[in-house]
Amino acid sequence: MPVREHNSAHEAAEALPLVTDTAEVTAVEPVDRDRTAEVEERAALLLMDADHPDLVSDPEGDPAVDWDGVRRLLEESHGLRAAKLSTLAGRHDRSYPSLLRIRFTVDDPDFDFVPGQYLTVRFAGTPRPYSVASSPNDDEVELCIRRVPGGDLTTDLFEDLSVGDQLTVRGPNGEFVPNEPSERDVAMLATGTGVAPLHSMIRYAFEEGRDTVDGEERDYWLFLGAGWEDDLSYRDAFESLEAEHDNFHFVPTLSRETLLSGWKGETEYVQRTFVKYLDADAVDDDDLGRFAQYRQSEPAYDIDARIDPGNLEVYACGVTAMVNGITRTAKRIGVPGEHIDGEGFG
């Protein structure tokens, strides 16, 4: 199954039907946090342990790190400590905010979309496609957007967009949409803002009772991968849904968060985490190939359910490499190709 490239939609952005050129912005909300103080404190500890107190001022109070000095140090340093410092330097340099939730109203009473589809948004003269994160049942449309350094539109959205501004909206478009309800369970996998269309699909499924077929509940799984805890878009909503529904299982995995906090959840990449929750009786190690090693680790979450690939639909969205990997693995472990769908970007 060829993975759709979301970025290819740029070329067709202006060809989509006009929805409105007066969509009014009602909310612009950061998702992530400014964690500069946490990063400085952790980096200072690493530098002190490495006998580089010269790169830290006021280590007994609120430490300030000489990040230019750290970068020079990293040019000639290797090993685990250097890798940690490099990761922290990247987080220090990251602009805040780097994740936004944007909501707006559409003044067309006939406007509708299918969960998983995208809209093309124009602001300050630049159009870009973004997946819809809200449910079709919501009164407003919501997007979840990551800042792209040097990006034509995200720079304007993050620095200039305000409540009351107007957007031009075209669409909807896209074929990354859920199948009709069946007896199959559903596994959704996302990285970063790839969770936006999956949030729409999940919300709508539980609002409309699509999680139940002929009186039998279907298990819905969401594996959401990110670097940091504050990159988990819609975490509160997913945790609430999991508390309300025994058949929804939320599995966040964070590859970098242990550098800043006592994170006890999953830490592997999302495709590696997925295999830990497969039914051991339904999948052989030979079918998993290089991913077989990851099923030897105990899952971090106490979930009283497992995944049977023979009774599964798979939806993956996010970084193209992850989506390609998941779709290949899903086929290999027995998920029929017609029940695998993916959309990649970046």
From TrEMBL:
Name this polypeptide is given: Oxidoreductase FAD-binding domain-containing protein
PANTHER family with a match to the protein in the record: NADH OXIDOREDUCTASE HCR, PROTEIN RFBI
Domain of life of the native organism: Archaea
PROSITE patterns attached to this UniProt entry: FAD_FR
InterPro entries: Cbr1-like_FAD-bd_dom (IPR008333), FAD-bd_FR_type (IPR017927), Flavoprot_Pyr_Nucl_cyt_Rdtase (IPR001709), FNR_nucleotide-bd (IPR039261), MRET (IPR050415), OxRdtase_FAD/NAD-bd (IPR001433), Riboflavin_synthase-like_b-brl (IPR017938)
UniProt-recorded Gene Ontology molecular function terms: oxidoreductase activity
Domain FAD-binding FR-type stretches: 81-179
Pfam families attached to this UniProt entry: FAD_binding_6, NAD_binding_1
Source species: Candidatus Halobonum tyrrellensis G22
